[in-house]
C-alpha cells in the first residue's frame, strides 16, 4: 500500500500488487493498484503477464520481502529487459537459473536505504499533499516482541513506531 501511494506520485504507469495476504491486497486496491494477485496461486504470474502489453510481462518488479519465493515470482513476471529490485531482507538463496539473465537481458538490483536527497524528495511529496500520510500506529516499548512477530508474519499495514513510554 505504501509503495503504491508513493509510486503514484512520481510515476506514470499502472501498478499491480502480488501478496499472499488478502488484507494487503485489499489495501493495495484502496491505494490505487490496477490489479492484485495472490502470488501463492501457481497461475498468478501468468495472469499478471496477461495484463501487460502483448502479455510480455512487467518492465519492473519490486520484491519487498526478499525471500526465494517472492524473488522467483518477480523474475517470472518480468518481460525481456525487465528489472527486479529486491528491498526485503527475509533471506535465503536465489532460486532462479543464472542463464535466464543473459537470455532475457534481466537486471537484478538491491536497494536498502536512500540518501539525504531521497528523504528530502519524499518529505516534499508529503508536504505538498502529492502523497497522503501513511498509516502510523504507536505502540509501547513493552510490546516490541509482539511488533517484531507481527512484522515477521507480514501482518503490519503501514508503519509502527515503538515508543519508550506511552
Fold and architecture overview:
The protein is α/β, with parallel strands linked by helices. The protein is built from seven helices and seven strands, in the order H-E-H-E-H-E-H-E-H-E-H-E-H-E. The strands form three sheets. The chain has a three-stranded parallel sheet. A two-stranded parallel sheet has the order 1-2. Helix 4 links the parallel strand 3 and strand 4. It starts with a helix and ends with a strand.
Percent range of helical residues: 25-40%
Query: What is the topology, as strand order, of the major beta sheet?
Result: 3-4-5
Structural class: alpha/beta
Roughly what fraction of the amino acids lie in strands? 15-25%
* Unreliable sequence segments: none
Whole-angstrom Rg = 17 Å
Tally of individual helices:
7
Order of helices and strands: HEHEHEHEHEHEHE
Name the overall outline.
globular
List keywords for this structure.
7 helices, two-stranded parallel ribbon, alpha/beta, 166 residues, three-stranded parallel sheet, globular
Short précis:
This protein is an alpha/beta fold. 37% of the residues lie in helices and 21% in strands.
Amino acid at each position: 500500500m505504501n509503495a503504491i501511494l508513493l509510486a503514484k506520485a512520481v510515476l506514470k504507469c499502472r501498478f499491480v500488487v502480488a501478496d499472499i495476504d488478502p488484507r494487503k491486497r485489499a489495501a493495495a486496491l484502496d491505494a490505487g493498484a490496477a490489479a492484485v494477485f495472490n502470488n501463492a496461486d501457481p497461475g498468478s504470474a501468468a495472469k499478471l503477464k496477461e495484463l501487460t502489453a502483448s502479455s510480455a510481462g512487467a518492465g519492473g518488479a519490486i520484491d519487498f520481502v526478499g525471500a526465494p519465493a517472492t524473488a522467483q515470482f518477480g523474475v517470472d513476471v518480468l518481460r525481456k529487459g525487465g528489472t527486479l529490485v529486491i528491498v526485503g531482507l527475509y533471506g535465503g538463496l536465489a532460486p532462479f537459473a543464472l542463464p535466464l539473465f543473459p537470455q532475457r537481458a534481466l537486471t537484478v538490483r538491491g536497494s536498502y536505504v536512500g540518501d539525504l536527497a531521497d528523504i528530502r524528495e519524499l518529505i516534499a511529496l508529503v508536504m505538498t499533499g502529492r502523497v497522503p500520510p501513511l498509516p502510523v500506529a504507536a505502540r509501547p516499548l513493552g510490546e516490541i516482541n509482539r511488533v517484531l512477530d507481527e512484522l515477521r508474519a507480514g501482518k503490519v499495514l503501514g508503519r509502527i513506531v515503538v515508543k519508550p513510554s506511552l
